[in-house]
Amino acid sequence: MSEKMNPLDFLADQYVICICEGTAEEVIMETLLDNDCLMFNRRNLVDRDVTRIRTAEKIQSRFLNREFSKPVSIIRILDSRSERFRLGKLYQQRFSIYPIYTRPEIEMLMVLAENQYQAFRKSKKKPSDFMAGYLPHSHIKARSFLQTYYSDVDKLLHAIHLYSLDAGHKGEYSLYHLLKDEYRDI
């Protein structure tokens, strides 16, 4: 995917259903939305908020049985390529699905934000385990911690940018691809 032309730029003109895998993904997306960093905003979001509903069947029944005045795209923020999400026949042609990967897991953004990538690589731990050891008195998966941690949107944007530079993620959509142009090089 070219860094110059963002293939998801069209999202500003559509409705979006944003599915977040967990609390960290939800807090990050809420922070980016609240700071107007994404190419879409809450007015674009179906029901004006992100959702934690993850199964295609529940997404269909909760969101897709409506008439929309604009196209609707489904954005899935997740870390696994193997997680199945298949809309029923009636919906497959009407709604586009875009996986936004945070591999190996969303806590990788914390590793990058704390400038601990080299130490993380040497540790051979999962990012969440590494960060739990690095920030031992923090509950790194707790909503209150995450809201405080990601309240510095510049720090978050910088970590997203660093993540996008990893050659192992080329060819995949990441949070970087959802950012407005002016926030892609922080």
Feature tags:
35% helix, single chain, 3 strands, 10% strand, alpha/beta
Describe this entry's structure for a reader.
By secondary structure, the protein is α/β, with parallel strands linked by helices. The chain has one domain. It is about 35% helix and about 10% strand. It has eight helices and three strands; from the N terminus they run E-H-H-E-H-E-H-H-H-H-H. It has a three-stranded parallel beta sheet. The radius of gyration is 16 Å and the shape is globular. The mean pLDDT is about 95.
| Model regions low in confidence, pLDDT < 50 over at least 5 residues | none
Q: How far apart lie the N and C ends?
A: 19 Å
Pairing-aware structural class of the strands and helices?
A: alpha/beta
Largest sheet: 3 strands, parallel
Total strands: 3
Compute the number of structural domains: 1
What is the number of helices?
Answer: 8
